[in-house]
Amino acid sequence: MELSESVQKGLQYLADAVHFDLKTFTAFTEVTFGSLISSQSECVLDHPQLKHIDQSILKHSHVATSTFILEGVKQNADKSTISSCLEDVSFDAERIDVFYSSYQNHKRSLEYLLESIGGSPPHITDVLWRLDYCMKNSHVHKVNQPSYLISFHVENDDSGAAWKEVNFNCTMEQLQDLVGKMKDAAKSLEKATQS
Q1: pTM (2 decimals)?
Q2: Which of 22, 179, 176 shows the shortest CA–CA distance to 92?
Q3: CB neighbours (10 Å) of residue 141?
Q4: Distance from C-alpha of 125 to C-alpha of 103, rounded to nearest angstrom
Q5: Of 121, 130, 133, 103, residue with least CA distance to 30
Q6: Membrane spanning segments where (predicted)?
Q7: Which of 76, 85, 143, 151 lies most in the core, judged by the most C-beta atoms within 10 Å?
Q8: Quick check: 60 and 10 in contact, CB under 8 A?
Q9: Who wins on pLDDT, 44 or 56?
């Protein structure tokens, strides 16, 4: 795994016994994993065992450790990869064991978390339409107006497994407005991808 200088520096703080003794390191590691998994978990800055640590070092280490954890889970890193990266930033064998133990205990929950984020927003894959002509409304008044029934086939993920249909009814003017807005959106996306 390649780590940015900022992440490496934050992990080096964590490896330094001057800032984090083994007991503090263990508490920090558990709180960091917990904060990634649950929004109700205790904040690193509020943990009683971590109060004596400089807040800027604590924040930097927390961000670096969280980044390292998520990158490791994303790449499905094994023990040798994790150990190698931590050795590069001066972790001793005991700290590596503590970290990897927490990593193993929380890995599955973090995988579920990353899987739930998803890769892309829902997108339209097909459109069906039908023209109806309304001659009278429910009050028996003459209307004589065309009406379009539109059905969008929408996929919710990249695999195309989860899909639904979005159905609506519109007039000619509303349909023209919709088509114009979709063309504008397509042009905006094209410009954004070219930048």
Answers
A1: 0.61
A2: 22
A3: 7
A4: 39
A5: 103
A6: none
A7: 85
A8: yes
A9: 56
